[in-house]
Amino acid sequence: MAKRKLVFIIPLILVLVVLSAFTACAKPAPPPTPTPAPTPAPTPAPTPPKVLKIGCSIPTSGPAAAWGLPTYRGNAIIIDMINDRGGVNIGGETYIIEYIAEDNEFSPAGAVASTEKLITVDKVVFMTGGISGHTALGTASVTEKYGMIYSHTAFSIPLMSAVNYPYAVRWSASNAETVVPVYTYAREAWPDAKRVALVALNQPSSISTEIYVRKFAPHVGMELVHSELYEPGMKDFRPLLLKVLVAKPDIIETCAAPPPEAALMVKQARELGYKGGFVSICPFPERELLEIASAEASEGYAAYGYPVEGPMATEGYKELYRRYVEKYGEWDNIASMANFTEAVLEAMEIAGTTDADEVMKVLESGRKFESLLVGEMFFGRGELYQLPHQGIYKQYVQQMQNGKGVFVYSMTADEQLAIFDELGWTWEDTHAALVK
Fold this sequence. Notes:
The relative contact order is 0.12. The strands form three sheets. The protein has a seven-stranded mixed sheet, sandwiched between helices. Strands 2-3-1-4-5-6 form a six-stranded mixed sheet, with helices on both faces. Helix 11 packs across helix 12. About 40% of the residues lie in helices and about 20% in strands. It is built from 15 helices and 16 strands. The longest helix is centred in the N-terminal third of the chain and has 24 residues, at about 1-25. With about 425 residues, the chain is of the alpha/beta class.
């Protein structure tokens, strides 16, 4: 019996040994081959922004360089501010702005030549600049020929004829706008003043100044009793001022005089014994008043301006001031005139195109735009300029006090419009005869 069990067990052991050997020799099945991941498509490089070229014909040399150079520098800084914020988006495409300026040397011929070059050679899409009426008219003669928007700062009655210059818009307050806050404040500063004399540079801006002062002064109990024009570059104002002083003015309006000439006028009037006040419905020339006329001589001088420091200043003006000082070492108050018509850029974004006709439709619509510097603004005053091409926004008055320009008064856009409505000025009774 034991033998039979042994016979049965031995073959079983042999089978198990063979199976074990076979299993040990067999190769393991290979793991399944993984499906390769799809090769990702290369990430496209970001599309570089396009370049939008804007031209500027402005005097950076000659007698008006004291206006033109700081205005140009301020404009360039504003463009840097816009580019640093991402540029502009027009029709779904991003544009970085390139600002190209040409010196017009404060001459109409220079304005024509520089504008022609900016449009035909540099290929700008709209023009800025101006400063003075006679140079702005030169630029406008070219921009109108090409159907290009021209955003200017010039005090010029002919140029304000929007019918004759349908592509010209003025972002900066004209004399018609600045006379209201400046003379309203003058009434407060010199409550007994009644007689105003005007001394102005002989160019189109001066004509408009005389009209507005003559028409508005009675609104605040004053009258324009004398006016004199002088040629650019005058150094000795005393013969002219002697004629002015015969009229016994309480206030002398220095009008559209370039800053050095306005300051020289103040200095020489004081030397002749004039004790009254000075005002200007043009920008406040703080640096020149201090350097040429002295703080004592210019005490009380009042003009319109824009605050770049203190509680009245917008954040945009504070940034402009900071960047200007960092770049040029000291602030020039004329740079506060810089604005560069951001409204035109915003209108291009709204229109989705740089086409001048489409952009003008947006500008003329009466909608409000947001400026980095002045805040809310819009284009209006169609009753005075035939078409609503005048920028309207809050205005400020600055006065020399103890050797420093201090902001002493402000007037909102709505307050200005209420006075304009009260005055009832129209194109026909202010400008029409002067552009024929």
